[in-house]
Amino acid sequence: MSQGLIQGSMRGAPLPDIIQLVCQGGKSGVFHVTEDPKRARIFLREGRIVHAISREAEGLEALYTVALWLDGRYHFEEGPVEVPTSITKSNPAILMELHRRMDEWRVINQKIASLELYPTSVLLPDETPQGVNPREARLLSNLTGYYNVAELAETLGKPVLSVAKDLYGLIMAGHVILKGVRSGRKPELPEIAVSEPLPTAAVNAEPLPAPEPLPSLEPENTVPSSRPPTAPLADPAKTAKLTAFAQRIAQTAKSALPAEYHDMVARLHSKATQQLIQGEGPDAVKGLALAVSRGAVEAGCPAEIVKELNAHLKALFSR
Q: In terms of Cα–Cα distance, which of 40, 41, 51, 48 is closest to 86?
């Protein structure tokens, strides 16, 4: 395979957006994703995601693993792909789910900074926890500080993100703290095996912090106005930069607006991403900010909140 056509960081330009751009070009090749010491490869064949592999898994499970690698890096190598087809889901469904998991983990990561930390219950003996669901209560009774987050998920046979979501709720309720060293007795984990389905909605948490500043978008950073879906990628780095900026706008809007407006923001963000893929460039990014503000007003959002939203959006463009 040829040397990396595209490379970047998970924080600088979200991997799902870059995969989508490459797939739009109908390319074959492999994305190498790393967050030392973790490694994963995601294979494309003629613009379709067909296989993924990590040290622990293959297929969709391996692909979704990278959602937790917020400090990871990636590069794409174009060339023939000779791997089995283990993934049959459509690209939009896969990338939407990957985006959702990444957004969810960004929130959880504010309280669980590392999977190597050891969750420990702070409840007194016989104390009844308040504000937890039955699944969280069963988990809580076995958080002795013996297993770290990653070990807990592996021992339970559950996805790390699912376990982290329950731990996040327990931490927010004040029932659990995280320690840097192992302590306590080994719990009887078979007692806490769960069968009920996990919620799929994003974590209902504190507002996301203000996004990190991105380099200002200069006029010359314009994506060509149109290109056939199967044409070679034109300036993918510039398009990725614009896509990342649109993501910042959506995150900022969600942090400023009440939860009932978040679906509206998500729909407008999805539309803007498609416009960027089609080559509309900075106009799509500016249009997203305007559409979010207008949508908030039309939906009856209080004027003071809209004013604060506009101030945050204006600050993004003034950097």
A: 51
Strand partners, 54: 40
DSSP string, 240-264: HHHHHHHHHHHHHHHHHS-GGGHHH
Q: Are 19 and 49 in contact (CB under 8 A)?
A: yes
Average of pLDDT values for 198-224?
38
Q: Residue 189 pLDDT more than 60?
A: yes
How many whole angstroms separate alpha carbon 144 and alpha carbon 185? 6
- The residue ranking higher by pLDDT, 79 or 319, is 79
User: Rounded distance, CA 70 to CA 66, Å?
Assistant: 8
Per-domain residue ranges of the chain: 6-89, 118-192, 236-318
Q: Is 157 exposed, middle or buried (0-12, 13-18, 19+ CB in 10 A)?
A: exposed
Please list, residue by residue across 239-253, b when 16 or more beta carbons sit within 10 angstroms of its beta carbon and e when fewer do.
bbbbbbbbbbbbbbb
